[in-house]
Amino acid sequence: MNKYTERLINGLIKENPTFVLMLGMCPTLAVTTSAMNGLGMGLSTTLVLVFSNLLISLFRKVIPDGVRMPAFIVIVASLVTVVEFLMKAYTPDLAVQLGVYIPLIVVNCIILGRAESYASKNPVLPSIFDGIGMGLGFTFGLTSIGIIREILGAGQIFGAQILSLEWFTPVTIFVMAPGAFLVLAFLVAIMNIVREKMDAKGKPLAAPSGCLTGDCASCSQSAMCTGKKSE
Questions:
Q1: Which residue ranges make up each domain of the chain?
Q2: Cα 17 to the center of its chain, rounded Å
Q3: Inter-axis angle of helices 35-58 and 124-154, to 10 degrees?
Q4: Fewer CB within a 10 Å sphere, N or C end of the chain?
């Protein structure tokens, strides 16, 4: 397996941001009331991830350590602004649905985490594929949650009615905040089962390392929280 394929698989499966690393929980829980919202947020985040990784890797040797994080944030914020303008121009309805969570991509743990832990330390092409893998993993997570919530909460998928309301009664809790937690917990439980099976086969997945775990020592973003450069 070449290193580019490995970066794709890493983001999609081994270190999936949603189900393994438990990162980006705010948009994950807030915008996944429908599959389209989850897909839109995931793809917009992927676009920012890919180009931020590209630019940060490209300029990694000329950005001074003292302004490393401010430089990363400026790059990410510029890209998010471009994405926001494009969405408002070409997908205005989706932009309205996602609302404030589009500009909040700037402080998404996944983007800053990959900038600090990977793009700032690796060449351009692997960093691009790392961004694609992590972005697609995030998109898969959000879209999966959105699909389940939309089917159970409205009998629809991507806005199309698939369950007849003559016999199906929508479980409205799934399009409310508690439904997001329930679906996420269910899917994370499935991922934990998969992790146990992979461990038994000698192919362990990455352990959860997001802020929800409270384990700052093993968190890839601990350097950002403390203001210190990771080794």
A1: 3-159+170-226
A2: 5
A3: 170
A4: C
